[in-house]
């Protein structure tokens, strides 16, 4: 293993010119594994890979024309550490970004790294102060919106046992989902009832996309004592729209 790394370093060194600026350009095109090993085992190469190099490498790798320095404004992170951590520990960085209110970094991670359930991550960020800032950034990004399951986001947002979304935030999120093309089904009404948000229930009813039969089917499963106000609202709607 060590012999192979030494051979690789000798090969890389033969590629280099001795001119600092030319060599930095050459290193920029190396794959991550080769570059990391070269930095750890070759003093000259490690010296070339300074903070500015890793910043440019970051921009080159992720095809960013306008790279914000705010990306790594937490703890003792440098561009090198951020580059490595996003590659190997993207979930850890994501949760740090929630904590430090770096919504821009969250969007970057959603778009450029492998996050299995982005929908779940968006809802789980409700525990942090930057939640709505993140939500608006998400819904202003058409590329990202096309990756998302809007129905899953809505249904998860209604589950009060699993998230800390305030009712006002729920309603704002619901409106954004509708604008993005959320398709309402009967089961979504039951989710809204369970979420105890009467404003969302009203909106669903007045969209007029559910039949009377669907409304009855998905509301009668709830206990009147537990959901009295919302069930009365639905009853009133049905009586007016017989």
Overall 3D shape: elongated
pLDDT averaged residue by residue: 86
Strand content: under 5%
Number of strands: 0
Rg: 25 Å
Q: Uncertain spans, ≥5 residues at pLDDT below 50?
A: none
- How far the N terminus sits from the C terminus, by CA atoms, comes to 77 Å
Helix coverage percent? 55-70%
Describe what this molecule looks like in 3D.
There is one protein chain. This protein has 17 helices and no strands. It has helices at residues 2-15, 20-28, 32-41, 43-48, 51-61, 79-88, 90-99, 103-112, 118-124, 131-139, 142-145, 150-157, 167-179, 186-194, 198-206, 212-219, 228-240. The longest helix has 14 residues, at 2-15.
The gist of it:
The chain is an all-alpha fold. The protein has 17 helices and no strands.
Outline the secondary-structure elements:
Layout: H1 2-15, H2 20-28, H3 32-41, H4 43-48, H5 51-61, H6 79-88, H7 90-99, H8 103-112, H9 118-124, H10 131-139, H11 142-145, H12 150-157, H13 167-179, H14 186-194, H15 198-206, H16 212-219, H17 228-240
Helix pairs in contact: 1-3, 6-7, 7-8, 8-10, 9-12, 10-13, 12-13, 14-15, 14-16, 15-17
Name some characteristics of this structure:
mainly alpha, 242 residues
């Amino acid at each position: 293993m060590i012999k192979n790394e030494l051979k690789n370093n000798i090969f890389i060194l033969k590629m280099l010119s001795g001119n600092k600026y030319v060599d930095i350009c050459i290193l920029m095109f190396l794959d991550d594994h080769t570059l990391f090993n070269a930095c750890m085992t070759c003093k000259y190469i490690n010296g070339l890979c300074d903070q500015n190099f890793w910043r440019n490498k970051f921009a080159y790798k992720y095809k960013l024309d306008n790279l914000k320095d705010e990306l790594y404004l937490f703890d003792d992170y440098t561009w090198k550490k951020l580059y490595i951590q996003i590659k190997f520990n993207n979930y850890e960085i994501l949760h740090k970004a929630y904590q430090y209110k770096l919504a821009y970094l969250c969007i970057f991670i959603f778009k450029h790294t492998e996050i299995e359930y982005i929908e779940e991550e968006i809802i789980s960020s409700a525990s942090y102060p930057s939640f709505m800032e993140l939500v608006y950034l998400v819904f202003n990004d058409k590329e990202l919106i096309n990756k998302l399951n809007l129905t899953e986001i809505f249904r998860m947002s209604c589950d009060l046992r699993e998230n800390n979304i305030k009712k006002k935030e729920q309603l704002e999120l619901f409106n954004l989902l509708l604008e993005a093309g959320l398709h309402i089904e009967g089961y979504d009404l039951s989710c809204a009832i369970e979420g105890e948000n009467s404003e969302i229930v009203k909106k669903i009813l007045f969209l007029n996309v559910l039949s009377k039969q669907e409304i009855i089917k998905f509301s009668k499963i709830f206990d009147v004592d537990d959901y009295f106000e919302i069930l009365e609202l639905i009853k009133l709607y049905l009586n007016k729209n017989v």
